[in-house]
Amino acid sequence: MAIKKRFDVPFLGFGLGLRAPHYEELLSSSGQVDWLEIISENYMLDGGQGPHTLAPFKEKYTVIPHGVSLSLGSADALDKPHLKRLKALLSYLNPPWFSDHLCWAGVGGAHMHNLLPLPYTQETVEYVAKKIAIIQDTMGIPFLIENLSSYVEFQESEMTEWEFIKAIAETADCGILLDVNNIYVSSRNHHFDPMDYVRGIPANRVIQYHIAGHQDHGTYVLDSHDRPVRDEVWDLFAKTVPLMGDVSVMIERDDHIPPLSELLEELNHAKAIYTKNIYAPT
Amino acid sequence: MHPPKPPASLIKTQQWLSTAIRTLDPIQRELADAESGHYLTRSTFLDSQERLKIYISDYWPRCLDALEADFPGLRRWMGNENFRIWMTSYLDAYPSRSFTLSHLGQDLLPFLKTAYTQRDQAQVIELARYEWATLFAAFAPHKPAFNSKKYHQDPKALTQMRFRLQPHLSLLHLTYDWPTWISNDTLKKPKKKECYLAIFQQNDYFESYTLTKGGYLLLTEIDKGYPLHLAIEKAFSELTPKEAQTTESTLQTLFKDTVQLQWLTKRV
């Protein structure tokens, strides 16, 4: 199904996260990985490994910055020095978009170093949308919000998570990074049908996918990014693809990083599922 | 655009959850657990307290693992279990205030100075100071370096100048050979040995430079903002004749290296 996207951004194909054990292979290989995603904060320190260390990768790949600490939903104000550092990174990379999570990561100046969920209320929608508008105005390129995996839900929530994401994306006029594994994880933890979630997301705003592995603890599922993608997530991905149109795909692995060849196998699997299902009847 | 005002209920919820995840105080813990049902829903398999525990069991290992990676020497010196106990107290007293885990150890020295009152306090502080300096060197900013070329014809003007050392450079006076001990797992104890080091950033990593006592004192005085001629005077006043002789013979090399390694920045 052809879907006219809200933002005029390219389809990048199938990418991987840039991780240290793969630096050399990624620079010497060709054609196996279409694009790279970086953790923005790794290149936002005052000194040392700054954006300049990405130069050889930037020459060869489109590099997309993906953040973990904008803390969009925090009751604390946006961190201006942080935005300045992010702007410097974006200016250096000149990516077609950048992203961070729809979450909060700390309050009262203290950082939790985790991605914490928000109460799904109309008040929160309006608050977070205004912050996103400031970020987009400052950075001047499309911004994508990523759905979380979560382990708690708040009593005060007034809507479902997918209604919350849709409301924020439309109010702020931003894009969506749809993490298929996170939908699966949260569907198990909060007992909803993951396809209700997928169908509730505005397809014209979905620009990028994340796919990752998780751990099944029986009474809950943990988003761990430390193992191969499981079949149930591949199945959900296959069902999601025809509903969203052309969306760039990325495999995430942050822990127990395997040889690149193993991740390339997963990436090829993602490509096969995508190609098979992109024009499937919905 | 004006920064938006957060909803009152959001502030309250986030303050509660933040405390509920981090608190080690038994009374606060009990209260947070009792209040969890007010803030959080239950799932089919887990009640609100059990759901909260998933976040608690993520927060502490994540922070403690980061500190273990950053302070491997301190961990070895204290022993694994003792290290984690002290680092838990540290994080309780100084919660992270940075977006990056790289800064997690930034308040460790003030914490150890006040809270760690064990017999080996001096060694622990010295070791933590050394390890923090190696970390800090890798991520602190590098400012435009002083260019000495203009002053080759006018050395007198040079002696009147005031400098600052690069923010990433730490001057250390150690009484044990921690660098050798850290890099050699087979050594049971560090050798008692007085040494003076400059730890600084090079090629996005840290480098170590061995100084004489005079060189250490001189760079310390320079960083305080004394003009070069006064810094030299002050440094030499604290040296024995033998130390002064050693320093004098190495002074030229030190200046050359200091400029070449870009340690000096102009004081504004």
Helix/strand/pairing class of chain A, anyone? alpha/beta
Overall shape of chain A: it is globular
Structural domain tally of chain B = 2
The tally of strands of chain A reads 12
User: What portion of the residues of chain B fall into strands of 2 or more residues?
Assistant: 5-15%
- CATH topology of chain A, which one? TIM Barrel
What would the principal axes of the Cα set say about the shape of chain B? elongated
Q: Summarize model confidence as the mean pLDDT of chain A.
A: 96
Query: Which CATH-level-2 architecture of chain A?
Result: Alpha-Beta Barrel
Strand numbers in spatial order across the main sheet of chain A:
3-2-1-12-9-8-7-4
How many DSSP helices of chain A?
9
| Count of alpha/pi helices of chain B | 12
Which stretches of chain B of 5+ consecutive residues score pLDDT under 50?
A: none
Mean pLDDT of chain B: 94
Can you give a write-up of this model?
The complex is a heterodimer of chains A (282) and B (268). Chain A is an alpha/beta fold and 282 residues long. Chain A has a single domain, classed as TIM Barrel. Chain A is built from nine helices and twelve strands. In chain A, helix 2 links the parallel strand 2 and strand 3. Chain A is globular, with a radius of gyration of 18 Å. Chain B has 268 residues and is mainly alpha-helical. Helix content of chain B is 57%, strand content 12%. Chain B is built from twelve helices and five strands. Chain B has a three-stranded antiparallel beta sheet with strand order 2-3-4, with helices on both faces. In chain B, strands 1-5 form a two-stranded antiparallel ribbon. In chain B, a hairpin with a 2-residue loop joins strand 3 and strand 4. The radius of gyration of chain B is 24 Å and the shape is elongated. The mean pLDDT of chain B is 94. Classes of the chains: A alpha/beta (282), B mainly alpha (268). At the A-B interface, strand 5, strand 6 and helix 4 of A face helix 1 and helix 3 of B.
